[in-house]
Amino acid sequence: MGLVTWSVGVLFLSTLLLCSADVHHYEFFVRESNFKKMCNTSTLLVVNNSYPGPEIRVHRGDTVFVNVHNRGKYGFTIHWHGVKQPRNPWFDGPEFITQCPIRPRTNFTYKIILSEEIGTLWWHAHSDWTRGSVHGAIVILPAENETSPFPTPDGEQTIILESWYNGNFKKIIDKALAAGTPPPQPDAYAINGHLGDTYGCPTDTIFRMEVDYEKTYLLRIINAAMNEQQFFTIMNHTLTVVAVDASYVRRFKSDYILISPGQTMDVLVSANQNAGQYYMATRPFSDSDVPPVDFITTGIFQYTNFVGGSNASLITLPAMNNTDAMLNFISRIRNTNVTQNPPINVPVDTDINRRVFITLAVNDLPCKNTKCVVSDGFAASLNNVSFVYPHIDVLQAYYRNIRGVFAENFPFLPPEFYDFTGNLTGVVSAVEVGTRAICVNYGDAVEIVLQSTQMGAGGSHPIHLHGYSFYWVGAGFGNFNGETDPSTYNLVDPPLMNTIDVPGTGWVAIRFFANNPGVWYMHCHFERHTSWGMSTVLIVRNGSTIETSIRPRPSTMPRCLRT
């Protein structure tokens, strides 16, 4: 019954969108460019000579064609983060999952099919660490004759939070993986490519947002950082959260937000203070035993025609390890039953016919590379399986029934149960490597419980599922109890998310209907963990009709080197 209700609601919404849908075309030229920051010059791969890259601006339900020209020295792909791409996994973008890389001196055109997404999403490279410099915003405005469920703001501003390295992102991770060592910490954090005034280099620039007194602005905030959750604030101003991951939420006010890598948030702010310059600021949050560097990066919220300075001592942000601040913020995110959202249709207990319980861990494996400087290198796993990228993409192998590329036997339970979030003395948890997929049928009602462990340094994991928005129905600390914890689930107004943070000493539960056939990547959005293997693939088999089956494979897909 749940799937039928969802289908009717989305069909009605889709009919409205198709009446006014438009088609957009963009050209992305990706090449290396030099950028000077922290009094150093770094060479980065960027789009159209810009860091961050160009903004894609469309309306709900539109279709976008992006022609990507690779003028760099190595292959890459681009992912349209949070776009569901109905029946269209071919253009989702993760390397060796849905396509092979776009080779140097070639181009590839992506077809991006928007459906019910609204607000802010983003695009980024999905090859090694290239997304550190190849990324930008996707702004999805309401469809024609559609309004927002909040007063129309007087202006808007995209704010992208980033990690800055004095070096090339790909070279940094390639060197670390070859040596078997963890990648280095970032040298700074950035706001829209600006490092602010806290790093000591006189030529560094600071991002400025100019505002008019008594006007209200919509901030489109994206966390594009590589491995860091981020607090963000504007001093003396209240932030009102209105959307998360391109879905409207029940509005709530806060002095700060907490946003994980991969997530997006739409936030209203009113310029209602005395005219002046106010710091906006960001710093990391971490509950890991090996936290990121605790830098504060600044920007300026500048009232028009005001001339004067800002005082760094006035910056107030939660401490990096302030778990209470984290909980206080995320616990307030709730769905909202407005007409601009799809009807809330959470799979209930009697609907669920696929349950998956997944442990997340950082492990070690023998380092066999000739450049290794340690005997055991880093690995990461889901249910003790560390993902290995195949030589051709999983989607092509699945579609063409090519054997030997992946296995349809990802474990639905961890191979052993222990005190995941407690004392691990004496626990030896063996890890295997492989390309193993979770397979479900079209229409299945799926529940996935994601359980952090204290393996490695512990800490949170922002998990992103491609091709879907899921309902975040539950969370807790300690070890998940399948008998008692489901009674605490929120099945009334759980938010729709595409990226969910799993607390370092706890668990989260998500539910969704498997109504988008295809091959969809699921992975930690801390890039070091994905590089070490904390990922898997969700395969949703075709339904019984053309409308419930994967679209035909385009003839223009980049060729894999071994095919």
From TrEMBL:
<feature type="domain" description="Plastocyanin-like">
    <location>
        <begin position="432"/>
        <end position="543"/>
    </location>
</feature>
<protein>
    <recommendedName>
        <fullName>Laccase</fullName>
        <ecNumber>1.10.3.2</ecNumber>
    </recommendedName>
</protein>
<keyword id="KW-0479">Metal-binding</keyword>
<keyword id="KW-0186">Copper</keyword>
<comment type="similarity">
    <text>Belongs to the multicopper oxidase family.</text>
</comment>
<dbReference type="GO" id="GO:0005507">
    <property type="term" value="F:copper ion binding"/>
</dbReference>
<dbReference type="GO" id="GO:0048046">
    <property type="term" value="C:apoplast"/>
</dbReference>
<dbReference type="InterPro" id="IPR034289">
    <property type="entry name" value="CuRO_3_LCC"/>
</dbReference>
<dbReference type="InterPro" id="IPR017761">
    <property type="entry name" value="Laccase"/>
</dbReference>
<dbReference type="InterPro" id="IPR034288">
    <property type="entry name" value="CuRO_1_LCC"/>
</dbReference>
<dbReference type="InterPro" id="IPR034285">
    <property type="entry name" value="CuRO_2_LCC"/>
</dbReference>
<dbReference type="GO" id="GO:0052716">
    <property type="term" value="F:hydroquinone:oxygen oxidoreductase activity"/>
</dbReference>
<keyword id="KW-0052">Apoplast</keyword>
<dbReference type="Pfam" id="PF07731">
    <property type="entry name" value="Cu-oxidase_2"/>
</dbReference>
<keyword id="KW-0677">Repeat</keyword>
<dbReference type="InterPro" id="IPR045087">
    <property type="entry name" value="Cu-oxidase_fam"/>
</dbReference>
<feature type="domain" description="Plastocyanin-like">
    <location>
        <begin position="157"/>
        <end position="304"/>
    </location>
</feature>
<dbReference type="Pfam" id="PF00394">
    <property type="entry name" value="Cu-oxidase"/>
</dbReference>
<dbReference type="InterPro" id="IPR033138">
    <property type="entry name" value="Cu_oxidase_CS"/>
</dbReference>
<feature type="domain" description="Plastocyanin-like">
    <location>
        <begin position="31"/>
        <end position="143"/>
    </location>
</feature>
<dbReference type="InterPro" id="IPR011707">
    <property type="entry name" value="Cu-oxidase-like_N"/>
</dbReference>
<dbReference type="InterPro" id="IPR002355">
    <property type="entry name" value="Cu_oxidase_Cu_BS"/>
</dbReference>
<keyword id="KW-0325">Glycoprotein</keyword>
<keyword id="KW-0560">Oxidoreductase</keyword>
<feature type="signal peptide">
    <location>
        <begin position="1"/>
        <end position="21"/>
    </location>
</feature>
<dbReference type="InterPro" id="IPR011706">
    <property type="entry name" value="Cu-oxidase_C"/>
</dbReference>
<dbReference type="InterPro" id="IPR008972">
    <property type="entry name" value="Cupredoxin"/>
</dbReference>
<dbReference type="InterPro" id="IPR001117">
    <property type="entry name" value="Cu-oxidase_2nd"/>
</dbReference>
<dbReference type="GO" id="GO:0046274">
    <property type="term" value="P:lignin catabolic process"/>
</dbReference>
<keyword id="KW-0439">Lignin degradation</keyword>
<keyword id="KW-0964">Secreted</keyword>
<comment type="function">
    <text>Lignin degradation and detoxification of lignin-derived products.</text>
</comment>
<keyword id="KW-0732">Signal</keyword>
<dbReference type="Pfam" id="PF07732">
    <property type="entry name" value="Cu-oxidase_3"/>
</dbReference>
